[in-house]
Amino acid sequence: MTGGASGLGLAIVRRFVNEGARVVVFDRDATRLASVAAELGDSVAAVHGDVSRLADNERAVEMATATFGKLDIFIANAGIWDGGLSVIDLPAEKIEQAFDELFAINVRGGLLGARAAAPALAATRGNMVFTISNAGFYPGGGGPLYTASKHAVVGLVRQLAHELAPKIRVNAVAPGALHSNLSGPAALHLDGRSLIEGRSDELIARAIPLAISPQAEDYAASYVLLASRTASKVTTGAVINADGGLGVTGIGCVTAGLDL
Ligand SMILES: NC(=O)c1ccc[n+]([C@@H]2O[C@H](COP(=O)([O-])OP(=O)(O)OC[C@H]3O[C@@H](n4cnc5c(N)ncnc54)[C@H](O)[C@@H]3O)[C@@H](O)[C@H]2O)c1
Q1: Domain for residue 138, yes or no?
Q2: Would strands 127-131 and 169-175 be described as parallel, antiparallel, or unpaired?
Q3: Which of 1, 15, 151, 200 is the most exposed place for a label (fewest CB within 10 A)?
Q4: Per residue in 223-260, pLDDT tens?
């Protein structure tokens, strides 16, 4: 489970532990990792590392097989945002660096995690679940860096589902808004900052057809469903759009006055 020490990832970790799973929590934030380990004890094993490095992903898979004996599910969830900066507002002297940094985490991280996890998952006939976003389908959920990266993850999921069948199923969840500590590229001085904490529940509810402000735990059941061997036996290459209905209205986030 990448990015499992905060926000959506932490909610998914808690839900899987409640379901009886034991989880490797792989994150680059050592302080939050320690707090997850203190909360969940022997049900989790913490790995401190960076998803954009293959060796760190391999270390996380080794931790799963060494500690828990096997790997059944790989969840690629770690990600960063771009602060919603438009192509014009991105600083010219930082745009190349910011692109590389964001894509290294949001796209390369998922690819490298899949590469590291595939042999262990083939052995168990396991599966992968990726976190996308409404930004994987519509504009306005970020700037061009984030939107392009999440569209890329849709392609990654489909290609991996194609390549890894029949042994490994590959699916995704595309959440809409949620409260978390989502931060951004260091190149834009957005690292270590919770960029979206200022969004009010009322603003979120106004932008979403279902008129709710979802909490991170509200998305966790979709991951359990896709990961389930029995419930999702015939499902691969699919994305659950858990965006509160943004897609069916076609209004997008910006026109609703909300930078998700
Ligand atoms: N917050 C939202 O509104 C929202 C909406 C849709 C999708 N998402 C997606 O949900 C996922 C989780 O984000 P969140 O909102 O919970 O944010 P978050 O910052 O609370 O959690 C992300 C976690 O990923 C970790 N992480 C970041 N880069 C990493 C790296 N290189 N290596 C290892 N760990 C790394 C962070 O330390 C953090 O613990 C992301 O993929 C994000 O794009 C978020």
Answers
A1: yes
A2: parallel
A3: 200
A4: 999 999 999 999 999 999 999 998 887 555 544 444 44
Rounded-to-integer distance, Cα 52 and Cα 64, Å: 19
Helix, strand, or coil here: 207? Answer: helix
Site to substitute for ligand 1 among 1, 2, 8, most atoms within 8 A of C-beta = 8
d(CA 205, CA 91): 32
Tens of pLDDT along 45-68?
A: 999 999 999 999 999 999 999 999
Strand 73-76 and strand 23-27: pairing?
unpaired
Count of the separate structural domains present in the chain? 1
**Residues 182-223: tens digit of each pLDDT:** 999 999 999 988 887 778 899 889 989 999 999 999 999 999
The CATH number of the domain where 225 resides is what? 3.40.50.720
